[in-house]
Amino acid sequence: MAAPVRGGRQFALPLSLPASSARADFLEDASNAEALAWLDRPGEWPLGRLALFGPAGVGKSHIARATAAAQGWRFLEGPALRGLPPPGPGGTVLDDADAVAEERALLHLINLCAERGERLLLVGREPPARWPVGLPDLGSRLRATASAGIGRPEDALLGALLAKLFADRQLRVAPDVRAWLLQRLARDAGTLAEAAARLDRAALAARAPVTRSLARAVLAGWEGFGEAADDDASETFAEAASPGTAALL
């Protein structure tokens, strides 16, 4: 379960969890706190629009979908945006906005939302002021758009996420095994979720607990898994992997 923060509210993990797009499934840490605060106050967005940016794998699309669902807004994909978009139900989320098929379509969308007083959330890898656009009018509007970034998740958040993924599957994995996994798995939520699914299937088939030996046998050769120095996990990872970590986020 997500940890309650800020007077009982719950936030979402800044990571792509395929099982849910609910805001209640998110946890907050330093990597996403500013972005989540802005997303909670769409009425305060300057000019009625906001850009959410960050590197691949930090869950921008997941957070964007959750925001669209919570607000009742439509969700669009930048590469598929063409022509004059229809009006949205109070707001629009445009994912991969920095990869739009037609710049003029994005300009029309920004203008349309401004004319109708609708909120617009743009999602990309860089702040909109850095997007390479050719239309001067579009460039000026992007530079005037407020932006909030999502960074790479900290070790504690990754540990809490991995513990949650196992708990959601009712799969008990010892803290030292989770710490060992965190040292070897790619640092993104999709990889952690896939690893948890693979280990769950293997443990069920073998009718055995998830150990280092089983995990190595199941994950060896998979692109999301890499061998590290075979030493004991650091205290940082051990603490990150413990169930109590979520209470700190």
From TrEMBL:
Source superkingdom: Bacteria
GO biological processes: DNA replication initiation
Ranges of residues in domain Hda lid: 167-219
MF GO annotations: DNA replication origin binding
InterPro entries on file: Hda_lid, P-loop_NTPase
Gene Ontology CC: one annotated term: plasma membrane
Protein's UniProt name: Chromosomal replication initiation ATPase DnaA
Lineage: Bacteria, Pseudomonadati, Pseudomonadota, Alphaproteobacteria, Acetobacterales
